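Appendix B, record 7
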Amino acid sequence: MQAALWATVVPLRPSVARAGWFVQNPDPTGDDLFGVKFVDAQSGWAVGSFGEIWHTGNGGMQWDFQTSPASQTGAYLYGITFVNASTGWVVGEIGTILQTTNAGETWTAQAVPAQFNQSGLYGLAFVDASNGWVVGSGGVILHTTNGGDSWTTQNSATQSDLNAVAFVDAQHGWAAGAAGVVLATIDGGSTWTAQNSSTTGSLYAVTFVDSQHGFAVGDGGTLVQTANGGGLWTSQSLAGVDVLNAVAFSDPMNGWLAGIDFARFEGVILHTADGGQTWTPQDAHNTNSLNAVSFVDAHTGWIVGGGGTLLHTADGSTWQLQNPATTNTLFGVSFSSPTDGFAVGDFGAIAHTADGGTTWLARPSPTEATLYAVSAVSPEVAWAAGTSGTVLHTTNSGAVWQLQATPVSTSFFGIKFVTNQSGWVVGAGGAILHTPDGGTSWHAQTSQTSQALNGVSFVDSQNGWAVGDLSTILHTVDGGATWTAQNMCPGNCNGDGSVTVDEILTGVNIALGTLPIDSCTAFDLNGDGVVTVDEILAAVNAALNGCTSDALFAVACVDTKTCWAVGGKSDVSAPTQVILHTGDGGTTWVTQAWVPPPGQYTDALFGVAAIDGQRAWAVGDFGLIIATSDGGSTWSSQDSGVSDPLYAVTFVSPQLGWAVGDRGGILATQNG
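Structure tokens (predicted):
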């Protein structure tokens, strides 16, 4: 089975103290949604993971949770249809079929034949309140003539999963599924006949606008269509699409496709106004897979998808996110007080809270650049930085963000302001820029590295650190006028992460005075301008044992002596994790370790926050959160409740903290 402008949604989450980490965003849900159905411009339903059914009575401005038997079983729900404003059905995992006759106030489980009570049911179609069909795993087709009071089996003659079904009347229908299977019936399903779909890719959705004209979509951006009831299907692969999950037409001319482009990490929407002859992309401004579409006329429609994404259009072309904040991946978070904070991410996404995260609301962004970092110095004043040299600034709590001009077009991955005037950004190619005037002007500083710099931390206007690829750590004590390498690979003159015999000889000659120190500063570990025997021995050890070459993604410093830097390698087969700590301003960096409990792995860490010399937190792959209360001597895991990557974390006190990550995820803790 398959995997903008802002509208306000009334949040449903109560403001109460909670233990551990809990989700604050997305709202109303962060779980994947797989099905959507609207019966008019106001009333609609969305279904998805863990038995969730959501209903709106005001066009999506507010969504309310509806309980059902699936709420208790946790079965994923994949399809939904209504035949009028009151009567509808939902299908899903473990043979789940639910029915309502009162618009979802109550949902009742319907029994399926015993041999299918563990089957995945993926698609359904009803032509009236009595006659309906359900399809699912292993080629199952079920039929009812009494609204689901009883279901009987129809012979599909296939073992392939059937993912979708469409009927235009009680006799004519089609089912589509894995390996390009398309079946058709002209007798209500008494007999099903295979049709040549012209594709072998899996098909996830099918629709017919009349008994002759139909469309099915699936893997590889495949669209197949017929103008003679399936006697002939023609296939085309749409560029820039990896998977198409949904197809819907409001009339014979106007239709929409929805899916995902994995290469761009972007949801895909395509529209036709000529009955499918041509398809035009529409902007989704969203990083999630888009899974289902419902239109009530040529202008009014909804799309749902991963991470609880809820999109709406009122003109058939411009899509608005109906979630109150964002469902795009978030890479940066910053709080200036226990109540006021910002989170930033893909497609220029900016979310803001003024109540500690009880409510998060989207803020208008002047860019679609990916924003990787944000730094807030007060509830009103903040900066954000991202791709293509993008720096944004707000002085009114994010109501308006303005682009600031920078002298480079490189991507910025880290940003830190210590006052409303003095700040730094770091990024690709070793870029470091500083502003002394709140961003009116930005000036390049010399980093003496070409490695990407991924994070930056300053404790005052003079003392700061930047970290990056190949375990690069840079330090300044003069506001960035000069940056000095720390934790370098001793003797690695060319910065390739390894030490050769020739480089050792260079160090010996520097120690003897026959070469200047500038020949290879990587031997001068303490920065005193002299290479000692101990420094030569450190280089020899690096040559024999190798150097730490994993990337560092974040750094957090609490004073001029104490910092943590974290990183690693995100690799399914061989992930690595790096935790470095200094208690002497970076003269020495010591490796710390988190020992995972059984069943967990040392996944890469992407973000770190510290409150003092004892307490720090780090976040990373697969929802990992670890913490220390003894300066890093021991690290222990904390239950995040999520499995998506977390990219950044911040704390304003030992108790209050936030973490952000994939699919608009914002987590909070009120007890550290």
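Remarks on this record: The CA atoms of residues 71 and 239 lie 39 Å apart. The radius of gyration is 28 Å.
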